[in-house]
Structures are given as structure tokens and as C-alpha cells.
Description:
Chain A contains twelve helices and 15 strands. By secondary structure, chain A is of the alpha/beta class. Chain B has a six-stranded mixed beta sheet with strand order 2-3-1-4-5-6, with helices on one face.
Amino acid sequence: MVKEVMTSNKAVAEAVRLAKPQVIPVYPITPQTTISEYLAQYVADEKIDAKYVKVESEHSAISAAVGASGAGVRVFTATSSQGLMLMHEILYAAAGMRVPIVLADANRAISAPLNIWNDQQDSIAQRDAGWLQIYVENAQEALDTTLMAYKVSENPDILLPSMVCLDGFILTHTVEPVEIPDQESVDKFLPPYVPEHAFLDPNEPMSIGNFADPNYYTEARHDMDVAMTKSMEVIQKTCDEFAEIFGRKYGLVEPYKTEDADIIFVAMGSLCSTLRVMVDQLREKGEKVGLLKIRAYRPFPTEAINEAVKNCEKIAVIDKNFSFGIGGALYADMKVKIDKEIYGFIAGLGGRDITPEAILEAYEKTKAPENDVTWIGLKEE
Amino acid sequence: MIEIRFHGRGGQGAVTAAEILAKAAFKDGNYSQAFPFFGVERRGAPVMAFTRIDDKPIDLRYQVYNPDYVLVLDDGLLNVVDVFSGIKDNTEVTINTTDFEGSGEHEVYSIDATGIALDMLGRNIVNTIILGYFAKKTQAVSIDSLLEVIKETFPGKIGELNVEATKKAYDMG
Lengths: 381, 173
């Protein structure tokens, strides 16, 4: 085990090196680019024994990933923002063909207006594609989650692809200390991928992604829903196994000081770090407040959320995305599944910094609500 | 916790300087974090970068608004951005300049890093040099860790030259 100061992008690349994928089709885009650069270097230096496929677009990158995964090998790809939007069509195909690809998305705003900075609209726009989506908070979690994602996706009961979502710049370009696990421990945790349902073998020919008429399509989609639901149990089990080997604990959600909290913040990704500090500061002033970090957004961990928020009075959901006429996506899901007084806040769009003042504004507006959904830090004309 | 803000232009190495400082602080036994804020992606555009150093893990994920230290890699920026924005009474500001006369209101250190860079590196890249001066003036990071990280960041001849230039700036501090 080595501890080194690095960006989340490098942490992801390190995880990929340790996971030993055999095919890596990637197309560079800010702020994902350094992931594709590190991986190209690792392949050139023979640190990863993989075919690095240079492609002409993200649509081709994910298409090559589907083909390779369908042939039965472990595959990694990564993208961001417009790149993920260009992948959209094939993201659905990948999930429907049940190929266990792992993709890292460097969360970035969607054009127009053109913006290279962080929010989470890009991955939220892929919410219903049938991919697992895990949002990470720091570089260590980016590394660890990438490893765990393979284990979950490749589980024969799941066979759905995973998207590891890391905040652009705030994580992708921030250096901080990271523990890099040794190869031996990772091999123990994540053995080579042995495909059971999709592989290329002339002696046992098969095809995937076939035509399904109205007699079959519904059941094929329902099977995916069953697998997605089942993945909650597999994610938790995988987190437990990971903790046993590497000592770092993760779950579907991560509650912080929620037991006696009157108000609980709910959020995803790097924002949770600052929120935890704010929870401590507010607690020092006698405010009974907590934080529930959502790691798994798909599958949506209703039971784990209910358990964490059962004693609170109100919930403040902070989203870095927006659905017109509704509010943030996480807010909307919480309103559907969680029977509590819930308020939604839109913040951090297009890289707008989420400061302690912005968080306090959300807190005050949850204590004395004016609207169901509030845009935080909105500049008036 | 100490918070440092760097001002530079795209291509001048402000982001690399912030990362070198974070890595050196980590070698000193601290926790650290460094990150950029890019304007538009082009050479010459004003860039900010930030470093945080603490003796415990750092959980803040927003920009530095009230820095303890400010480092300015290019005095031409003084006319373009407010490098003194949000500074505190005890904030120390280090500027690469030959002709900046502060108002006396803040602690400002001037160093002709460009002169050293042109003389010793043969090109106007000042990021390591200003860190050497900063290390001596502020003691926020040890010179040994700083030089080690510079060597790791720039292997070979470039690294050796940068180490010499950084040492020279340190001795001037």
C-alpha cells in the first residue's frame, strides 16, 4: 500500500490499472482528459496489458466498449458532459445487452451556454438508461468505487453496467492524499472476469441485443429492473467485503449525525464534504442537523434512506441538476419515495462555487420555507 | 489550516505550483489539497489555483476566499485581477515583480523571479522559484520537501535546474 498525493482522475486511472481491463476505448474531453492520458501512458508502458482503442467519438468509444464486453472481456471507458450525451443511445443498448462495462463520468455541465465546469446534469440525463450510478466524494472513494463497480456489475445476478460519477474539477483536478492498494489484495478482491452469459466462442455461438417483439420486450426490461433492485444487496455485500480487505467502509448511503437531527441535508458527490463541515459548525451552535450522503443513486436505496431519515422533521435536498417544472432529480425521487417534509435546492450549476453561505441559505430556507424548490445564490437582475 | 491562493496566467505553471506545494506539505507530514480554477481554456488567460494545508484531513470543497498567503506569478495581473481580494490583516502576499510598491497596508514580498528564471532556466517559468522564496519567507513548507517534489515533478536536467533556481530564491528570502 502506497500513499500519494494525486487527482481523482489519476485515482480512477490507478483503479483501472489494478482492475486489469483488457480493452479500453476512450475519447478525451475536459475534464475527463487526464484519465484517458494516464491510461494511454499505462498501456504504452505495459503497466496495463490492454488494447487501448483510439476512436473518433464518444459514440464509438461506448460502441467499442459494448463490443468488447460482449466478446467477454473486462472493459473500461470514461467521458464527460457532451461526450456522455453523445453516448446516450448506446448507454441504453449496453444496459439492455447486459454488458458489465464500468464508465467513469467526470461530471460537467451541458451546453448551451457552453460551460466546462462542474454540475451533475450529464449523468442525471442518463438516469433511466439502466446503468448503476454511484456518486463519489473524494479521490480515495473514486479509486475504491471504480474497483467495487466491476465486482458489482460483473455479478451474474446483476450484469448491468456501472457509472462512477466524480465531480469535474472539484475532484478530477484536485490533488489530495490517496492510498493505492497493492495488486495482490486487489486480485483477491477482484478476480479476472469470467463471462457466463455473453462471450465470443465459435463453438458456442450466441448473439446479444436481439430483436424482441412485443411478446418479449417487456420481460427483458423487467429483468433489468429485477437486477437493479437486487444490486442494492450486492453493492452492500461488495462494500462489506471491500472493508474487510482494505479497511475503508462504504455503503449505499452514508448518514452523518442523522439519528437526532431535526433537519437532514441530502446530497451526492463532493458537496457532501463541505456539508459535513457545515453540519459540525451548525451543531456547535446547537442546531440539530445531519447529512445523508447518497452514493448509489441508481439503484435508488429507498429503504436505507428511510432508515436514516426516520426521526427527522424536514429534509433539504441539494441538487446540481434541474428538471424543468419539477426541481432537482434527487429531490423529485425523494418526494416520490420518502414520506417526509422535503425541500429542494438547486446549486452549483455550471461550476458555481457552493460556499458555506450557500449551504446556510438552504438551511435557513428549510427552517422557514417559502417555496418547495429554491435556486440558491441566484443573481437578481 | 492554512489556505494559499495562486494567481498566474494559463501556461505559467500556477496550477503545477499549487500541486507541488500540496505534495511538499504532504511530505512534511501534513494533509493537503490543491486545485485550479480555470477561466476559459487558453494560454495567457488569468488562472487561479489553491492549496490547503492542515494537520488533519481536509473536507472543504470550495474555493479559497480569505487566503493566509497569496502568490502572484505575473505582476501584469495586478492591473487585471484583484489579487488582494478577501485578504486578511495578516495575509502575506508574494509577487514576482521588479517594480511593485505596495501601499504598506499589507505584508508584501517582492522577488524578481523572472530575472532568476531567465538567468538560470533560460525561459520565463517562475513557479518553482517563487515557491522557494515563499518557503523561506513563510516557513509554511520545508525546503527539503519542496526540492524533493520539484525533482519528482521535473525529472532530469530540467529538474536539476529548477532545484538550483529554487534554492537561489530560498536563499534570497
